[in-house]
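[Q] Does anyone have a clean structure-token version of this?
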Amino acid sequence: MAWLETRHSVEYRPELADDLTVLRKAAYKTRGIVFPRQTVVTRDFLDFLPKLKAVGRLHVGTDNTDLEACKERGIKVIHASSANVRSNAEYLLSSLLLLYRRGVVSALMGRRHPSGQMGRELHGSTIGILGLAPTAHTLAGMLTGLGVRLIGYDPAVHHTAPIWERLRIQPVTLTELVSQSDAVSVQMLYAARFRGFVNEKLLAACKRGQVWVGISRSALFDEVALAAALSDGRIEACILDGAEDNFTGQSSPLNGLKNLFITPRLGSHTREARLRSSWYVAHRMHEAISAEQRGVEYVPSAPMDMELPGAISPSQWGDHDLMIR
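[A] Here you go.
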């Protein structure tokens, strides 16, 4: 906020997050707005903001932003697509470790005899990497350092692509991945065509006693198939981050399963990830608004290490409205 206020006219209005009618009036002449996750930016909403040139999102996804409507209006959509890579990778690693050694959690909760189940070590085990999203690149390095054998599959990456060798992941078929892995990590980028991708046909090939962890959209999973695999021992336990509200609702077959653990988007919930995301969006919002004021095309600068703000000459800044919500 302090960095932006030395370059733009900035208002911090968190109270408008739940009142879009008041927001439309307050932001009528605003050039840039940073929105919270819960605010949906629709075509109709944008009709009330004729001066808007930049939309900022501190979270990774853009599902709640009408990208086509923004493009038609020349509005730049800025989101920190890589700020959470390391935090998500560490989340997946910690989830794997917890499922391998569940007695640790039981002991921390005060149970005198935490678990009769023997713990396991990651070293020497086979981990299946489902999806080569950027998080998988960082996770692969962490797991390799622990002596893990990595196999992987991604529907968008050919098995001959050099990325597999670079990450030291052996590409396999989807069936081979679930039949050979001791654990599966899911970080596949979601698209509508992948709804129910993890289905009964796939899970029928599971190596018994597997554990699963994931940060992908829960729509990737067929709920009935996942519930069956969790119930009959094919999947011993599963941790998923940020599942949709109805995924384990009252009418879901997953409701009440004691070996399914859902966390509320904790993968990106670190101080460092928030810092990277905030600096990235602040810099890019400034660039987009400044380019519009000068009448030049907005060209984002190279990706930055967003630990500290970059040093940019004050002579480049203009007086523009920016609203942070």
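[Q] Thanks! Anything notable?
[A] The two ends are 11 Å apart (CA to CA).
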